[in-house]
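Please predict the structure of the following assembly.
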Amino acid sequence: MTGVRDIRAVALFAAVAVLYLGTGFVQSWNIALSIFNMGLVSAILALGVNMQWGYAGLFNVGVMGFVALGGLATVLIAVPPVEDAWAAGGLRIVLALVLGAATIIAAILVWSKLAPGRLRALGMVVILIGGFALFRTVFDGGVIAVEAVNPAATGFLGGLGLPVLVAWPVGGVLAAGAAWLIGKTALGLRSDYLAIATLGISEIIIAVLKNEDWLTRGVKNVTGVPRPVPYEVELQQTPWFTDLAARLGADPVSMSSIMVKLSYAGLFMVVLLVLIWFSQKAWNSPWGRMMRAIRDNEVSAAAMGKDVKARHLQVFVLGSAVVGMAGAMMTTLDSQLVPSSYQPLRFTFLVWVMVIVGGSGNNWGAVLGGFLIWWLWIQVEPLGQLLMQSITSGMAEGSWLRAHLLEAAAHMRLMTMGVILLLVLRFSPRGLIPER
Amino acid sequence: MDILNAIVVLLNFVIIPATAYGAQLALGALGVTLIYGILRFSNFAHGDTMAFGTMIVILCTWGLQAAGVTLGPLPTALLALPVGIALTALLLMGTDRAVYRFYRRQKAKPVVYVIASLGVMFIMNGIVRFIIGVDDQRFDDGERFLISVRRFRDLTGLEEGLGIRTSQAITVVVALIAMVALFWFLNRTRTGKSMRAFSDNEDLALLSGINPERVVMITWLIVAALATTAGTLYGLDKAFKPFTYFQLLLPIFAAAIVGGLGNPVGAILGGFLIAFSEVGVTYAFRKVVGYLGPEGWEPAGMMQLLSTDYKFAVSFTILLIVLLFRPTGIMKGKTI
């Protein structure tokens, strides 16, 4: 089992650990821990994308959408329900959604049961148009009623008020559902089509989160999502904690913040370890071998009697579920849902850089890529500032070029990520920890 | 009179804007489809290529304006367009040398090109943000209207006015010229024919002595021209913002796929189809229906199918329908 490759992998992980520890020593432990927490989430994201790309060669550019669905799940599960809003129009909205779903099901039934012909086409069109009109009539009234309830503070239906940890698997389920719909249509066609279909669905999911105020408060954001760990202020008032801080000789305020971050890190670590364990088991199982066989040669796998499309759908749904779960964890960590913060470069393409750089087809590689690239993404900005300051130090004070360069340093990291991606893709296409 | 008024409203708010938007999408989709036909991959950096080209045009326009050079009633950007095309062509050819040529030699799978194009997208996006920033930039000048709403009303005595913005007229004219030139080139010239042969059957084209590198270089040159033109026209018509250009990727891809990837005529049809559906579905038809209905009656609702925030959903739905029922597109595209 052990060999040069394992030593290399361990050395790489050690090097990344040094980066995080270095941040702790040079900057502060608070910063190092916040980067580490998002690093854990990034590692889970990369694991999910690696399932799709590394196991099956599926190209998903809609990661952002699945992450956002996880965030939505957090709000729907953990936020307490807004009773007044439910009374005002909640049931009406639910009824409208049921009507909408019924319309689509009826249309599908008509399409599949009736014989092809003019009658079928006409029937489907009539059902769709009639159903849409009915849906809008019921829906619009409900939305207006709900959004009118105290818009400054609520104006939305709220959630179920359950413990926030329940939202993590639910986020996975939501994302899996969306992935199933997309996979059903776009899998089995050319690989580019899946890419474009996923790009589309992610933009639509974000548009829904931004505009359906009754669901997510839209651009007004949902803040104060309940947390699975205690608040800093509570800790500072707990006797055992102040005792501990006094004994360690630490400032209780900064220590409480570190304590909270450590608790998050513990929770995330459990999820990550469980996922890695399952992924490794799956990878080394007959199922994993079958997936790789399909990935490497679809035609011969199909000739061996493997249902290529069904397996692709399966792994696509699984990977998206992991991504959705990571999305729920991320929103839990921020304890707020900010729909406008979902940017494709940050949530889709950065995860791709993580997977490619870390090593596609290797779970440990994806995890390493998640930690490494996230650290770089955060740290390149101050490094870029530093670089720009040294470049511009020779220029005249107040020259426009100097001001522009200093201001533009923030965009350095996009370029850095692009360069890293291209370099790895060219010179080490199998990534830092290659597939074995 | 009411029917005339309804037609004028429809023209003013749906048909004219959609035609201009459709022409811009068609030019973008032509670029995507050409890359797909010749280089055989979906170029995710296309939106950012458009942004880069437009940025050069904007900078050049500002320079010209500062020097006091204008085109009179026409926007100065038209004068700057060739510079933008030239620099974008240099950038694209440089990218090809540095990135894509390696994978061509390796005969890599199409998806590897797509991932490489993601890297290129990051870098181009970074360059654009680095140079011009992330904010809205307006660079249109010259006469704003060909016909203003007020003048149209005075001329015709109708209740509703019809305004045609110069940028809309220019979009249609420039797009028409670009399309005619492109089809003349592809169908009538030797180089164009060799490109079509290469797209149709690579091995046969190589056998007949067509130089693949030359074909690829010319493709990038044409793509640079199309992308910069599309981007500049879009920027003149609306405004320039790097992120919007990235988001244009979805309707452009939808247009190219709906029309059949690799098929230029299809790309143009697809562009207009997507634009008309997008504008039509998100427009509030209240006024039009009010004019057509009986005297003194107005519909209670806005008669708007979807809010404008969901315009992406329109291109996406069309895309899904095409993928489900006719995966090769309206005009048969190529399949690998």
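The first strand of chain B starts at residue 145 and ends at 147. The domain at 2-325 of chain B is CATH 1.10.3470 (ABC transporter involved in vitamin B12 uptake, BtuC).
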